[in-house]
Specification:
CATH superfamily of the largest domain: Vaccinia Virus protein VP39
Shape: globular
CATH architecture of the largest domain: 3-Layer(aba) Sandwich
CATH class of the largest domain: Alpha Beta
Strand content: 15-25%
Number of strands: 18
Length: 430
């Protein structure tokens, strides 16, 4: 393909989407950055803003890795859409928040969502861009499909209807990276949208929704699946405008309507539960461990081991709350130390720091028990070694970045499948 596919990356963090689509120095994450990735993608503009910190560490790391050109470190809600260049694909891992609609704009199809909810920043760009991006590639936590608890799936329905009103067909899948051979058990929902007028959109209309979901779709070709319920998918229409959906969708429903895989076109939803259909190799935690390169700071003192074991262990005990009331507290145990012969548990933002914690990873080495190093955490997300290393950025902050990041290999695989679909589109048009 002669022309590059122009990408705008929102909520960029330290650049996981960019690494997955462009590669690093032309190399592929799936090969451990050893083999070439012939990528047609080019990030022409990116945005990263962390509202709760004075020093914008993630943005500094991003600039250090990719350069300042085309990078914006301002609150996306305040950025003038006309300053964002035209692009083919909009990507980003937007936060899971309360997406309910606060106000509609009088005599307009537009709306104002709750302040600070970053979905509405995506919505604003799509609404105001004269040349809308042809494709969207978004990521979120899988909880999005069942949020909020009083209206299971309402938030996702708002997003689907928003995109439907703007002329997009949408497919989604919850992918656990470890189930497709990657090193971390990280479940995230990946959302792809195709604008009306593209040949991908037209092709979706020609095939059955189940066929797209299980065989023909972009995500199905990146991550093959099977389903016991393929003959009996859940089908329904998303009705009403976004305000009525916000107020009424699945009100008092005890379970969600959206399964882990699905397609929406013209407001018609087809969704079914799928299972991975993967027969390749698996990466385990042991494959990524640094040997002899980890400093003493990461080793746990023997006198602190009991505290770690207590926090990781099962509990059934009486506790007292801040008002002085006693209550029974119980929780199950966690495997301690973390097994080296399996993919790792999900990295969380509180992974860094020396203090004992139930959720931090701990491994046993010949030298003793220790926490994971920043490089090991980067490897679990399939980032290049020392991607987040920068003067002034602590190891704790580097761990925080990886807790917020995504598994780059998932982006790369979906990016390759999407590239093939787009190349077919260009061939059909020429």
């Amino acid at each position: 393909m002669e022309n590059k596919i122009k990408v705008v990356e929102l909520f960029a963090g330290v650049g996981g989407f960019r690494l997955g689509l462009e590669g690093w120095k032309g190399k592929s994450a799936l090969s451990g950055y050893k083999k070439n990735l012939k990528s047609p993608y080019e990030v022409v503009w990116s945005n990263q803003w962390e509202p709760s910190t004075k020093t914008q560490h993630a943005s500094l790391v991003y600039e250090n890795r990719f350069g300042k050109n085309g990078h914006c470190n301002e609150d996306i809600a305040t950025v003038d859409v006309s300053k964002i260049p035209d692009h083919d694909i909009l990507v980003g891992g937007f936060p899971c928040q309360d997406y309910s609609v606060a106000t509609t704009l009088k005599n307009s199809k537009g709306l104002i969502g709750k302040k600070g909810v970053l979905w509405w920043s995506i919505h604003k760009i799509l609404s105001e861009k004269k040349n809308k991006p042809k494709y969207l590639f978004l990521e979120n936590v899988d909880r999005l499909l069942i949020s909020p608890s009083g209206q299971r799936g309402r938030d996702f329905a708002i997003i689907l209807q928003s995109l439907n009103e703007m002329g997009y067909a949408v497919e989604w899948r919850v992918v656990n990276a470890a189930e497709f051979g990657m090193p971390q058990r990280r479940r995230r929902i990946f959302i792809l949208a195709y604008l009306k007028g593209t040949s991908i959109y037209d092709y979706i209309k020609e095939v059955s929704p189940t066929e797209w979901i299980l065989e023909e779709g972009t995500i199905a070709q990146a991550f093959p699946v099977m389903s016991d319920s393929a003959l009996f998918p859940t089908e329904f229409k998303i009705k009403g405008d976004i305000v009525s959906i916000s107020e009424n969708f699945n009100k008092n429903g005890t379970s969600g309507l959206f399964e882990n895989t699905g397609l929406m076109i013209n407001g018609s939803v087809t969704t079914l539960k799928t299972q991975p259909n993967y027969e390749g190799c698996y990466t385990i935690l042991k494959d990524l461990i640094q040997n002899g390169e980890v400093t003493e700071d990461f080793y746990i003192n023997e006198q602190d081991l009991d505290k770690w074991k207590y926090l990781k262990g099962p509990k059934k005990e009486m506790r007292t709350n801040s008002q002085g009331f006693e209550y029974n507290y119980s929780e199950g145990g966690m495997i301690f130390p973390d097994p080296l012969d399996k993919p790792s548990r999900t990295i969380i933002t509180g992974e860094g720091g020396k203090s004992a914690s139930r959720f931090k990873h701990v491994i046993k080495t010949p030298k003793g028990y220790r926490r994971l190093s920043p490089v090991e955490l980067e490897r679990l997300n399939m980032f290049p070694d020392d991607h987040t290393k920068l003067e002034g950025v602590s190891d704790t902050k580097r761990a925080f970045f990886m807790g917020n990041a995504l598994v780059v290999g998932v982006i790369e695989k979906i990016g390759i499948a999407l590239k093939q679909k787009i190349e077919n589109e260009v061939t059909l048009q020429s």
